[in-house]
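Entry:
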Amino acid sequence: MTSAARLGILWRGNREARDAATAENNRLSPLFAALAGLNVHAEPVVYAEEQTDEVRAQLLRLDGVLVWVDPISGGRDRSGLDALLREVSSEGVWVSAHPDVILKMGTKDVLFETRELGWGSDTYLYRSMEEFQTRFPPQLASGEPRVLKQHRGNGGIGVWKVELAARPEGGAAPRAETIVRVQHARDRGTDTEDMTLGAFTERCTEYFRGDGHLIDQPFQPRVSEGMIRCYMAQDRVAGFARQFAAAPPEPEGKGDDSPPQRILGLPAAKTMYGPTEPSLHALKARMESDWVPAMQRLLEIDTSSLPAIWDADFLYGPKTEAGDDTYVLCEINVSSCYPLPAEAFGKLARAAAARVALARNQRTR
């Protein structure tokens, strides 16, 4: 009888969490159960930088690993973990999502790289502080708000809505002393702050450290109608979630700054749906038959290299003349996709089982 393939499920924790982890006492327990039903032995792999050597030894005993670690968490990034994952991948361990794939599709850069696809919008990329200070002010001249996003983050970290505090006259680009109204997505509220454009751009200095940069998109006013998360098991839709905006307070003396215009983060709980949800059939068809294949071609990612689980967040764009909805890509999440619709666990388990079996066969040749 052929022994079971061995798959690790990795998340961030400390020494105590590593020692206590089992297949049953964590949020991904349904995945452990689904994998067991496919003759895949799954085991928890709790990671911390202080335990790198121990985690490395564990991973090298496995055939593959599924990873759930945010880009930024507790003041730490993924640089050490990504180096470790590249190392074990070079030894034949299947890694999902591989750090190189994350850099292609799991950072905000994907919004710029795929801006010409049907899910795209009027998107810009600023690679340096100088470029940002030169090219961003003209984008505000129309009076329409813009949304800035640091290239790698989560939970609204480094995401800002920016607009002129007063309607411009003559369409001239604002200057450093021009007052802008800014709102941070991490607060997930409707509070705004007025400051000079120069002061705000200086606040963004941290986003250009190292290889950091900023992505610039138009604000989507239909954010007040909520967001749709499309969960993917490689190139197939595995389910959906809808998240609605909390009702904002009435604006307090800030001109025509209506409540929908002040919604940025979405604090409401997600409502989960299966992959055959009728109201989202059109989005499913576009993802599977058009947008994902086009993204793969553009970014040079074959289907076998797509993450076993990932998701794409969509806001509603302008309606068509026929009254149909359009969708604008807000971000792609690859590093740590959770929560998941119940139906997604089985699809994820089957995708992972097929890939880890292939990796096992290649290592034992």
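The longest helix spans residues 342-363.
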